[in-house]
């Protein structure tokens, strides 16, 4: 699949403006200097030819909950179902105001919520794309390209085979945000 996606990606990079894309994590960071202050995610995007200007002009970074839920022993606390439910209206308003054409749930909690799934390993979702009504909030289906959480604390990407899934997901993302719908990887 990678050779075909690489060809799509190379053709896509020469196209016009990127589609409006919302990246939705699980919670906002403790400190956020700019609206697109997610250095580890940005490094992944740069690796497939997406520029800082592209990020600023076409992407929204948001989260299931619009605040930092705290930390224990240096690890961020995952928002509870109640926290997420309390923040649904804010997330809906953010999505509606931005008007995304593509949604990228970042991390397992966001992926499961976005796709209305109850569970499963990340490897079931990463490297695939979906057509779904994101978070059951948008009123219509959009392309969904899940990514794992890019935190340095996450070991998922270092497990055998997972780097290839991440690379496939990033190539799929590059293709989809350039307005091309791949024939592969859809679920």
Description:
The mean pLDDT is 89. With 187 residues, the protein is an alpha/beta fold. α1 packs parallel to α7. 36% of the residues lie in helices and 15% in strands. Strands 2-1-5 form a 3-stranded parallel β-sheet, with helices on both faces. Strands 3-4 form a two-stranded antiparallel ribbon. A two-stranded antiparallel ribbon has the order 6-7. It has helices at 2-12, 39-46, 52-58, 81-86, 88-98, 108-115, 162-177; strands spanning 21-27, 59-65, 71-72, 75-76, 102-105, 130-132, 142-144. β3 (71-72) and β4 form a beta hairpin.
Radius of gyration: 16 Å
CATH class: Alpha Beta
**Would you count the extended β strands for me?**
7
CATH homologous superfamily (4th level) name = Uracil-DNA glycosylase-like domain
Largest sheet: 3 strands, parallel
Q: Helix share of residues?
A: 25-40%
| Overall 3D form | globular
Spatial strand order of the main sheet: 2-1-5
- In CATH terms, what is the architecture? 3-Layer(aba) Sandwich
User: Would you tell me the overall average pLDDT?
Assistant: 89
**The CATH topology:** Uracil-DNA Glycosylase, subunit E
Distance between the termini: 15 Å
User: Pairing-aware structural class of the strands and helices?
Assistant: alpha/beta
Low-confidence stretches: none
- What percent strand? 5-15%
Q: List the total number of helices.
A: 7
User: What is the H-and-E element order?
Assistant: HEHHEEEHHEHEEH
How many structural domains are formed by the residues? 1
Protein name: Uracil-DNA glycosylase-like domain-containing protein
Pfam families: UDG
Domain Uracil-DNA glycosylase-like: 39-156
InterPro entries: Uracil-DNA_glycosylase-like, Uracil-DNA_glycosylase-like_sf
